[in-house]
Design brief:
The chain is α/β, with parallel strands linked by helices and 567 residues long. The chain has helices at residues 2-16, 20-23, 30-56, 64-82, 94-111, 116-140, 151-168, 170-174, 191-213, 222-236, 267-296, 302-319, 328-336, 343-363, 368-382, 385-388, 396-411, 416-430, 432-441, 484-492, 512-527, 539-547, 550-554, and strands at residues 90-91, 325-326, 446-449, 455-457, 470-479, 499-510, 531-535, 564-566. The longest helix is centred in the middle third of the chain and has 30 residues, at 267-296. The radius of gyration is 25 Å and the shape is globular.
Amino acid sequence: MIMNRLITFIKTSLQEINPWKNIKMLHTNVRGDILAGITVAIIALPMALAFGDLAFGNLVPGVGPIAGIWGAIVGGIIGGLFGGCMVGVSGPTSPKAIQIAGVMLIFTQMSNITNKEEILGAAFTMIFLSGLILVIISMLKISRFIHYTPYPVIGGFMCGIGVIVIFTQINAFLGLNSQENFKEHLYNTDINALYVSVSSLLILFLWEPLKSKVELLSKIPAPLIALIIGSSIAHFMNLDIARISGEGMNNAEQNIFNFYMPNLNQLFDLIGPAFSLAALAVLDSLLSCKVADNITGTRHSSDRETFGQGMANMAAGLLGGVTTATATMRTVGNIKFGAKTPLASIVHGLTLLAILLGLGPLIGQIPMACLAAILIKVGIDIMDYRIISILKNLPIADLLIFIVVLFFTAYFPSKLTMAVGIGILLAISISLKQIMLIWKTKYINRIIPLEKSNFKLKKHNEKIPTKVSANVLELNGPLFFGSIESILDIYANSTKHDILIINMNNVTMIDLSGSYALEDLIKGAQAKGIKILVSNIKPNIKKVLEKLNFSKNIGEDCYNESIISTL
């Protein structure tokens, strides 16, 4: 009996991660995917360079940018081939870059390693091991539990990452040595570096307003323009400032191709940090996939996405690439430019490979001040302004979780997964009452046809077409981080409809996670042309929602119950 169950489990796991599901879709949107892939590669290039330097800049100067590109190449090709999000684009991300930098700093200090090759060997062994762990996680089908992460944890984490990115780049922005305290050495600011960094940052901030006025500029990514102009200023003014090719790389061509065999002698020393890298890869990737789901109205496969990231990180470790994850900004751009299948991600990786082979020497001439400006803008953009805008109105419990996670993320960059873990444990302890309530009462959320509900549409209403299909989403019990995933699954698997009535009569409480999940569900439905009606909200629930700008964000028309009546 046990053996049969084990065989069945292995079979279903292998079926889930089978790349054929992705391969058979590659021909369905060839033109759109190729154009999207090339465009996203252009967006990804400066990001890959910058995140690579963020990962390795302090330990092995000059090597990071090339490692960043290799991470983007294998993330695009292998992540696209094996991943579970059809439109996801993988590569180095700011949380992952910060994590590997922090982890390696502690490891080198504890191990007393100073040799460049030994440092890189340990780093890439760690990345390879993290990929292997991700493959195992996907086979065990446990990655999906990341969906139960409370939103204040996510918001605090992203804001903390933004703070870290900004502060780590101030020295390079000012032209200071990486070891100097910028507060104490402002007098050493290099005016030549400022010419480049300030100009690049201004372009990054002004590009969006310019794009809205000049349609021709709409599809040109701001980071690429900043990279070109910043590098041009340094070249034509013949500025003596730090470049990518600095002390760690005499010639970019010399470091394009490297192969790193995992060092098994360091296995026990690196397995702990590798688990940490794997855990953050799951969090980072699946959060990006959820964003893609909200935009496309689809549902990704968490286990297959984790498997794809595992394969990509193993390849990154072998080829000398920065640890990878599904990247939110590149994924959103991919969707925006018309991608529908993994072919776009694969084309993105192949395009970056072509750029690396053809422009390797030029990449080495990019000023570090320019990359610093790009990263500072990334740090500003990555902060969660959705939660920042309502901080003063947050429920006390959600505010406490946000502050705790923000603090631990910003002050312990080498232990990012610890910050997330603390936040989740705090959220569970605060919501223990709701968790026990669900466990004991077994509240059932369901979606049913209008005909089987207690609602009916009023006849001869101008706002309703003659022939419509309507469903009722009946929510029961507490609506919080522990219950929202089942609701999203129920709605994702529902039949097509023109009208959705959300009955909240039996909702007993709601937190930030529940509010945002409901808001995203409604916005996703509205984007498809579905009319939404939110009915029977209790006063205490409505009070919480009003503080969180729920009504403002979904539109007051969703509360118009004049077109329905209760049986």
